[in-house]
Design brief:
single chain; 307 residues; alpha+beta; Cyclophilin; seven-stranded mixed barrel; six-stranded antiparallel β-sheet; globular
């Protein structure tokens, strides 16, 4: 099988799909894209089903050479894409011919771009998924949980479409804006002092440079958290408050058990916006009801065809 040859892999480029579901009871995190919104649009532009394997590119600096005629779609961070030095529109699908080179520059806004191909990239599944999980050594092109390297081949198939297509402007986020992220209350929230919960929502936080695909760490005036003597299962979006009072929002590669008190859960759709924030970016939070969050998530899944 031919495909796209990796000339420059960038700082961290990972093959991701719909995630590795059903293994958290054995300590395996789900992985998958950090920005579901951008990833879902990349696949939709190519008529790919939900969760079709694509590439998550952190910060840009990627160069790929095509060995076949096919169609690609690029969404997410603004990375100044060019095809044989010709600028490409953002959040769009475009044709690429054998021998052409796609170059992505440094991310001007946002942190992660998503590159999809018609039909998806091929990789050997590990526990039912090709999602790359570096810590656990699962997924990716080799099945061993490795990031892209120069010389790798991203296998894919030829494809044809009648015309180019772009995502409407209304659905393209402004990654430079300071987001207001919504939080579903629950977990240990009733055990927090009322003024501490109010302080969490009243303060402006910053995203720590120590954040990664496992957890987004916040910086700000410390919260006082109640003590907890046991561990429990955790899920993506859980907002843990450790002893130092600096909250941690669990990401796609999160651990499966945790002992820190949980203040609530970040709205699933706002996890995508958080994934595009650079270090030191200001963050504000507001409460949202569970029923409202569920209704919005169902609408999102219906639109993108997740069953």
């Amino acid at each position: 099988m031919s495909g796209l040859r990796v000339i420059k892999p960038g700082p961290l480029s990972l093959v991701q799909d719909g995630g590795r579901r059903g293994w958290q009871h054995l300590g395996v995190s789900p992985a998958g894209p950090l920005d579901w919104h951008a990833a879902a649009w990349a696949n939709r532009l190519l008529d790919n089903p939900w969760g079709t394997p694509l590439l998550e590119i952190a910060l840009g600096y990627v160069e790929l050479e095509s060995q076949l005629d096919t169609w690609l779609a690029l969404t997410g961070a603004e990375v100044a894409p060019t095809l044989d030095e010709r600028p490409l529109p953002r959040w769009s699908r475009f044709a690429v011919r054998a021998g052409q080179r796609l170059r992505l520059g440094y991310a001007r806004s946002g942190q992660r771009a998503y590159l999809a191909v018609a039909g998806g990239f091929w990789a050997p599944p590990a526990l039912g998924s090709v999602s790359t999980q570096l810590r656990e050594g699962l997924g990716g092109l080799s099945g061993q949980g490795e990031a892209l390297r120069a010389g790798d081949l991203l296998p894919c198939l030829p494809a044809r479409f009648e015309r180019a297509l772009s995502v409407p402007w209304a659905y393209q986020p402004d990654y430079r804006a300071a987001p207001l992220l919504r939080v579903i209350g629950g977990g240990d929230a009733p055990r927090f002092e009322a003024e501490q919960l109010q302080a969490f929502f009243a303060r402006t936080w910053q995203l720590s440079p120590q954040s990664d695909r496992m957890g987004a760490r916040l910086l700000g005036e410390a919260l006082r958290a109640p003590a907890r003597q046991w561990s429990q299962g955790v899920a993506r979006g859980a907002i843990q408050v450790p002893a130092d009072g600096q909250p941690i929002i669990l990401q796609a590669d999160h651990q499966t058990m945790g002992g820190y008190p949980i203040l609530g859960w970040l709205h699933p759709l706002d996890q995508s916006r958080l994934a595009q924030c650079p270090p030191r970016h200001p963050l504000r939070f507001s409460p949202v009801g569970l029923a409202d969050a569920q209704a919005e998530l169902r609408e999102f899944y219906r639109f993108f065809g997740r069953t």
